[in-house]
């Protein structure tokens, strides 16, 4: 691995940008390539094997583009594929999302923690292992948030339909007495404001992205893969969906205006396609 190479970051769509922006903040001298698999978003209702196949091909595509490390900026893909990526690509540092049950368990005073995630994240072994390790003595309310990632993809962050959906998801969590909520899907930090508003000031909402970015810094340092700190990071964006729509969504969500490139799925592999502004 070359320490001048970019960090590869991927998600099913725009959600992983909540992690990407923290990585850029924590590591301003690193180059990145962000990949959004918008042809297949959402991953949440899909089966483990299918998500693993997508993740595998995306990781290889990022490595072909020279990436020195892979950040799986998607809880659903981490649940389905992180272990597999580490086993099949042992020379590549791979960092994934683990639901922030540990900090939530340390923080809660009511002893009740709400977890918001996709169906596939709750079904995965990673969640069960994390919950088993860190949640003893704490009651977890696991709330499947079907359809919420689609609202974020569509740019509906605070409209009446998203608000109604959030109220429905938060009701069982709040009724159970949770004082801490974990956002265990990288799309959800983009709706953290309405979540906070509905949950009220006595409920802490945990976005794990800053902690993941710090972890990326640690892992790069451990592998001697940090970029020269005089370098100013450059960023590329690739989507298997529509590049124009990706760039518009990214600007709305992060304020960053940048061109993005297209990649096409072709028989289970990703091929570069024409780029767009
Ligand atoms: N952003 C993804 C996650 O963190 C999932 C959204 C989806 O594709 O269902 O779980």
Query: Which molecules are bound besides the chains?
Result: D-glutamic acid
Chain oligomer state: single chain
**Strand order, sheet with most strands:** 4-3-1-2-9-10-11
Q: Portion of residues in helices? A: 40-55%
| Distance N to C terminus | 30 Å
Helix segment tally: 11
User: Structural class given helices, strands, pairing?
Assistant: alpha/beta
CATH class of the largest domain: Alpha Beta
Low-confidence stretches: none
CATH architecture of the largest domain: 3-Layer(aba) Sandwich
Structure write-up:
The protein is an alpha/beta fold and about 280 residues long. It folds into 2 domains: about 5-95 and about 210-275, Rossmann fold (3-Layer(aba) Sandwich), CATH 3.40.50.1860; about 100-205, Rossmann fold (3-Layer(aba) Sandwich), CATH 3.40.50. The chain is built from 11 helices and 11 strands. A 7-stranded mixed β-sheet has the order 4-3-1-2-9-10-11, sandwiched between helices. Strands 6-5-7-8 form a 4-stranded parallel β-sheet, sandwiched between helices. The longest helix has 17 residues, at about 50-65. It is globular. About 45% of the residues are buried. The model has no long low-confidence stretch (mean pLDDT about 95). The chain binds D-glutamic acid (DGL). D-glutamic acid (DGL) binds near residues 41 and 75.
């Amino acid at each position: 691995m070359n320490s001048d190479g970019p960090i590869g970051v991927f998600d099913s769509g725009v959600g992983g940008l909540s992690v990407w922006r923290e990585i850029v903040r924590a590591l301003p001298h690193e180059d990145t390539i962000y990949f959004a698999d918008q042809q297949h978003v959402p991953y949440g209702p899909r089966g483990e094997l299918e998500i693993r196949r997508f993740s595998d091909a995306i990781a290889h595509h990022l490595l072909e583009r020279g990436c020195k490390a892979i950040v799986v900026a998607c809880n659903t893909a981490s649940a389905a594929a992180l272990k597999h990526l580490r086993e099949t690509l042992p020379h590549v540092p791979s960092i994934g999302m683990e639901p922030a049950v540990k900090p939530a368990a340390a923080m809660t005073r009511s002893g009740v923690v709400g977890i918001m995630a996709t169906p596939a994240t709750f079904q995965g072994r990673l969640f069960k292992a994390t919950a088993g390790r860190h949640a003893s003595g704490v009651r977890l309310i696991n709330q499947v948030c079907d359809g919420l990632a689609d609202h974020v993809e569509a740019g509906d962050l605070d409209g009446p339909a998203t608000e109604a959906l959030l109220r429905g998801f938060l009701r069982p969590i709040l009724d159970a007495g949770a004082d801490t909520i974990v956002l265990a899907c990288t799309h959800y930090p983009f709706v953290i404001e309405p979540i906070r508003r509905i949950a009220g000031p006595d409920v802490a909402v945990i976005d794990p992205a800053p902690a993941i970015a710090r972890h990326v810094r640690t892992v790069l340092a451990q592998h001697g893969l940090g970029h020269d700190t005089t370098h100013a990071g450059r960023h590329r964006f690739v989507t298997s969906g529509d590049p124009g729509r990706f760039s518009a969504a990214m600007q709305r969500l992060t304020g960053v205006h940048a061109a993005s490139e297209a990649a096409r799925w072709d028989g289970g592999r990703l091929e570069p396609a024409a780029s767009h502004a």
